[in-house]
């Protein structure tokens, strides 16, 4: 073979996608002579945040199964809450992870190497027929996000992003593989800080603070007089330690276990870290030495005093770098003191803060958000999970779920599903024809509109005369509610179904064709409501800060909303079948027509809608987020 041919063959091998069969890898690891394996079905009670749909891929799930359901296990990073359940006796399946994490598993936890398989970063790999890509998670050394492309029927792929634990940063938007997952089917999201109160400073700002305190106090007291204690995990916070060492020109003292981890991470040359206490006044301690961080920080000055006396110092300054110690209403960097002791609470976290979570979801625009922290994992549709997902209303791609929602109305076999799709297409054609007819009608007639009218008055056609019984109406409303976002109010639903001739499929279809308009109207109302409270503290509008309106029949609320609807400063347009571009033309034509008095319009009775027909509930207030589980 010529040199050129050999080079070409090598290049082809390099670009060829690595293909793996987890079952065969597992059988090889077991030294089994069997060529196949069978697993029981994954039970419905298995936490949905720990496995990828339509696969047997289990994520950060080593202590949960009592029976082996799979040979494919993925570990996102080397933190105890993720690898809990692993031990030197592990033999349940193959653990897929990053190269750095594989070293930590083998050298620190003593996992048998034959059960660990390292996957490359930013390089697609086929595992059991699914494309898997690992990208950096910006959490701790070796941490990764997992991207899955899962084949389904008819050559269609489902795409899933599992963030593991991660801290979002702008460079992630530039990752070409992650860009390919924009509009993915679901994101399994690290919701540790999914709370509007958790707006943490950047990691750089927090690190600068620690460095400045060590430098200032160190110069003030001199060497061997003040001891600095920095709390860390077994793996993590290395970026703080390295920067303190570099900028304060000092080594960092760690114990033997921490040094073992640091050697795996490439810090074993003695330039930064040492096990000799006499070489440094900056020591690393375990996470709970300085105090308990959950549910609020409780300092342990007793232990600090014992350490100070034992090591012969005059003063001890501690640092607890975690977002859980962040006190929003106080200084950004809180300090607790007693006698000669200080504990600095540094909001330096490797988890995404609230704004970063929303920015990430906005970028990916998934069809669904699945929380992985801060909820009952076995109840994905629980009230708590819904509260977490509400933070991302308007950011996910609910429009793409429209067909699934329509199909949900018709439970049955495949023929029924196909009929729904045909009906939906026919309805869209009829809708366009109807819009064209209405447009011509509007343009050829002089409409009587009040100068203060902010709504489009729906005039029911002849089919609207058939109104279901009260019981049937309630059934239709409730069934429609199940297929719409949580923020849609009862009166909005009533308007939708009544204007759609009580046809549920048509009502839901109409909603999702105009969803953005509905959401913008709600946003405008919230802005108006906020402004009203700011300008008039004693305003009669009384709205709950964290929940829905009590009811559309609440007299006081209806009265106040009616007053809002008459305000000339709030221009809201009621939903109609006319497209936004056509409606704009209609508005321009109407503005050139002679406008009649308010009295005539008000005398039309029930035909005059108020803003109440849109808002019988408040949107969830972003200032009150769901409570999260403990996670440092």
Automatic annotation (TrEMBL):
This is DNA repair metallo-beta-lactamase domain-containing protein. Residues 533-546 have a biased composition (Low complexity). It comes from Gossypium armourianum. Residues 448-474, 533-632 are annotated as: Disordered. GO terms for cellular component: nucleus. Keywords: DNA damage, DNA repair, Nucleus. Residues 619-632 have a biased composition (Basic and acidic residues). SUPFAM superfamilies: Metallo-hydrolase/oxidoreductase (SSF56281). Residues 271-375 form the DNA repair metallo-beta-lactamase domain. One of its GO terms (molecular function) is damaged DNA binding. It is found in: Nucleus. Gene3D superfamilies: 3.40.50.12650, Ribonuclease Z/Hydroxyacylglutathione hydrolase-like. Residues 581-597 have a biased composition (Basic residues). Its main location: nucleus. InterPro entries: DRMBL, RibonucZ/Hydroxyglut_hydro.
């Amino acid at each position: 073979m010529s040199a050129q041919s050999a080079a070409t063959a090598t290049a082809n091998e390099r670009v060829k996608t690595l293909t793996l069969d987890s079952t065969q890898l597992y059988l090889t690891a077991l030294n089994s002579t069997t060529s196949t394996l069978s697993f029981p079905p994954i039970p419905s009670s298995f936490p949905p945040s720990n496995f990828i749909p339509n696969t047997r891929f289990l994520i950060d799930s080593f202590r949960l199964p009592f029976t082996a359901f799979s040979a494919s296990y993925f570990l996102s990073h080397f933190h105890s809450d993720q690898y809990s359940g692993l031990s030197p006796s592990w033999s349940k399946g193959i653990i897929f992870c990053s190269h750095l994490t594989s070293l930590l598993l083998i050298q620190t936890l003593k996992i048998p190497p034959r059960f660990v398989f390292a996957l490359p970063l930013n390089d697609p790999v086929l595992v059991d027929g699914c494309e898997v890509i690992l990208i950096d998670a910006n959490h701790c050394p070796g941490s990764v996000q997992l991207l899955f492309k899962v084949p389904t029927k008819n050559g269609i792929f489902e795409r899933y992003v599992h963030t593991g634990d991660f801290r979002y940063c702008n460079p992630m938007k530039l990752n070409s593989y992650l860009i390919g997952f924009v509009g993915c089917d679901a994101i399994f999201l690290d919701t540790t800080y999914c709370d509007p109160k958790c707006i943490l400073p950047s990691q750089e700002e927090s690190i600068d603070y620690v460095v400045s305190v060590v430098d200032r106090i160190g110069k003030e007291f001199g060497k061997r007089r003040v001891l600095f204690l920095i709390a860390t995990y077994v793996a993590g916070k290395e970026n703080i330690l390295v920067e303190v060492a570099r900028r304060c020109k000092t080594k960092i003292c760690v114990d033997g276990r921490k040094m073992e981890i640091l050697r795996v991470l490439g810090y074993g040359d003695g330039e930064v870290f040492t096990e000799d206490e006499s070489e440094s006044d900056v020591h690393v301690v375990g996470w709970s030495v300085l105090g308990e961080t959950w549910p609020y920080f409780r300092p342990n000055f007793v232990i600090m005093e014992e350490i100070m006396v034992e090591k012969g110092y005059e003063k001890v300054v501690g640092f607890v770098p975690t977002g859980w110690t962040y006190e929003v209403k106080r200084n950004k960097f809180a300090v607790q003191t007693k006698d000669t002791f200080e504990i600095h609470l540094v909001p330096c976290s490797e988890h995404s803060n609230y704004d970063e979570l929303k920015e990430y979801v906005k970028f990916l625009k998934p069809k669904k958000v699945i929380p992985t922290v801060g909820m009952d994992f076995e109840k994905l549709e629980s009230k708590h999970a819904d509260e977490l997902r509400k933070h991302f209303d308007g950011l996910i791609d609910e429009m793409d779920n429209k067909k699934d929602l329509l199909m949900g109305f018709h439970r049955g076999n495949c023929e029924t599903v196909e009929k729904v799709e045909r009906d939906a297409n026919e309805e869209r054609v009829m809708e366009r024809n109807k819009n064209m007819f209405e447009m011509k009608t509007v343009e050829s007639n002089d409409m009587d509109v009040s100068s203060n009218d902010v709504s489009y008055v729906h005039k029911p056609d002849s089919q609207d005369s058939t109104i279901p019984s009260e019981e049937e109406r309630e059934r239709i409303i409730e069934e429609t509610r199940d297929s719409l976002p949580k923020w849609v109010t009862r009166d909005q639903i009533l308007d939708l179904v009544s204007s759609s001739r009580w046809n549920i499929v048509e009502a839901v279809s109409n909603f999702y064709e105009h969803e953005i308009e509905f959401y913008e109207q709600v946003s405008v109302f919230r802005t108006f409501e906020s402004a009203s409270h700011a300008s008039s503290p004693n305003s009669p509008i009384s709205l709950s800060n964290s929940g829905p309106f009590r009811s559309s029949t609440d007299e006081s609320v209806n009265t106040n909303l009616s007053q809002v609807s008459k305000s000339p400063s709030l221009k809201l347009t009621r939903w109609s079948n006319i497209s936004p571009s056509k409606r704009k033309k209609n508005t321009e034509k109407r503005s050139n027509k002679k406008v009649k008095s308010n009295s005539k319009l008000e005398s039309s009775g029930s035909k005059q809608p108020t803003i109440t027909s849109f808002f019988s509930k408040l949107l969830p207030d972003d200032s009150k987020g769901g409570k999260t589980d403990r996670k440092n």
